[in-house]
Here is the input.
Amino acid sequence: MKTFFKLSIIFLLLLTEISCSKDKTKVIQHVDSIPISQAVKITCRDTPDVSYYIYLPSKYDINKNYPVIFIFDPKARGKVSVNLFSEWADKYGYILVGSNNNKNGMDFSTHQNIYNSIYNDVINQGSIDTNRIYLAGFSGGARVAQNIANSNMNIAGIACCEAGCQEPLNRDNKFCYLSFSGYWDFNYIEVKQTEVAFQRAAYQHHFIYFDGKHDWPPKDLIENIFIYFETQIHKILVFYVNLQHLLIK
Here is the structure.
């Protein structure tokens, strides 16, 4: 039991390894070996009209599995969103994927089909922890993240920036929910209404407010997304360790 507990603690510590990197951008079609610590543009192998930017953390090891965040920008700015998250992806050891196709004005089936294409492409070429698939989005991109999480059972958590949740969450999909809103954002009221509704419904959630308008949160606040996701997985691991302790007793 002592050995098991020590191994569990070591695993928790490995989740928070800190590293630094420089951000560069390359455009490629499709490769089996993606450059590390660079924003790389990739065209989906099976759907060449769909592309995305992928970012592998600086200490990426093909023999390990990593959590991944799929990011949706309302203007399909995959590079912008990946660059915004990349510093913290290095620090916490996450893979980032920014869609170049999901944007405002599309119906949900189109959004879902694009996501499916990107998801399948990433899964086939990266070392992904399929138990730790996260979504993040800003404005209309946040609504895309919400709808995909509601329709897919394998989403561990979502981070929604500057948009409330307009549809009831599917309680069978047990993802955690993080939300950001600027005090001067035109969606601020609907975000506050969502927070009240989540409190009443006892959804797993956390809301962060800051002095800002309708845009992605400042880069320093983006770290809270990784902290929140890490906190949730740590709770699960601690529960697992405690359960194993009880079973051994």
Residues 125 and 172 are 29 Å apart (CA to CA). Confidence is low (pLDDT under 50) at residues 1-25, 236-249. The first helix runs from residue 2 to 14.
